[in-house]
TrEMBL record:
Domain GntR C-terminal: 13-142
Protein name stated in the entry: FCD domain-containing protein
InterPro entries named in the record: GntR_C, TF_FadR/GntR_C
Keywords carried by this UniProt record: DNA-binding, Transcription, Transcription regulation
Protein's UniProt keywords contain DNA-binding: yes
GO function terms (MF aspect): DNA binding
Organism listed in the record: Paenibacillus foliorum
Record bears the keyword Transcription regulation: yes
Amino acid sequence: MFVTPMSLKDLNELFELCIHLETLVVEKAATLIPEQELLQIKERMDSFSKVKPVSDSEFLQYVFEMNELLHGVTLQYCGNDMLQNVVCGFIERIQSYLVFLQKNMNIDHSQLEWEENAQILHHLMQGNVQEASRALRLHLQNSLERTKIYFHEAFLFCD
């Protein structure tokens, strides 16, 4: 896989867009996601809480599956195909870098990822759109900080 070098500025800008657009996605989708769908996600998320990845690739798979569950369902129900396509493109770009970086990822972050996603889900299940949006924003800001660490450790940033 070929990954184009990314500057710290590029990463910050990518996440800035993701933060704004994904919170819009959650706000648009929150009241449209069927309760049964949220319950199924919770059941799957609860099973993830018991998972303790033992390798970088297992951790990455864990993160991707969790993201697909929660971010995927909000994208599915946001009701805006163009928004969905743009956000999916951003997520794919970030994930391509994470695949490249997997040997530098901190497996211990799996619990943090789970807790952040569980908070978003909790607020969605409670019908609290603003808190779900706020929890997603915090999750993405934390993801940015974790990703910066991975990039610095891999010396992947270009100037």
